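for the recovery benchmark. tokens below, seq after
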């Protein structure tokens, strides 16, 4: 019985640990195949790019990008500021969190937007770097 309680507790704890934790890249930075500056650099990621935090060790974080790639980045290049990236071919950003609201602007695939807040009903309030803001359907972005 004690083992059963332990296993249930372990499952509950691990379920909590599976919550997604996102960051954004604060400045253009190299991504590596291992947590070391001596590791193989794979590519440079642009400032503002959202990443999912998977593991943190000392001064390094293992992150997943919107394509699903797992890579290492120095922690100093990560920011708490949240961004999302458009994953639809073209997303309509509306003036209100409603399908019939006026279109404020459109954003194409891979455009990065600042996440202002996740809104109930499957929407996200976002802001473009030029200052325009509005609401996009959550399924059209990655990084929530």
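predicted aa per position
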């Amino acid at each position: 019985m004690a083992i059963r309680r332990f296993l249930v507790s372990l499952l509950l704890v691990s379920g909590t640990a599976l919550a997604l934790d996102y960051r954004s890249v604060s400045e253009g930075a190299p991504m590596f195949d291992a947590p070391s500056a001596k590791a193989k650099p794979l590519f440079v990621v642009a400032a503002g790019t959202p990443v999912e935090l998977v593991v943190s060790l000392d001064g390094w974080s293992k992150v997943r990008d919107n394509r699903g790639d797992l890579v290492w980045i120095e922690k100093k290049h990560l920011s708490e500021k949240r961004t999302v990236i458009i994953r639809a071919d073209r997303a309509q950003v509306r003036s209100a969190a409603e399908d019939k609201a006026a279109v404020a602007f459109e954003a194409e695939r891979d455009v990065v937007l600042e996440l202002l807040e996740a809104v109930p009903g499957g929407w996200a309030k976002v802001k473009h770097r030029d200052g325009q803001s509005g609401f996009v359907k959550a399924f059209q972005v990655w990084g929530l």
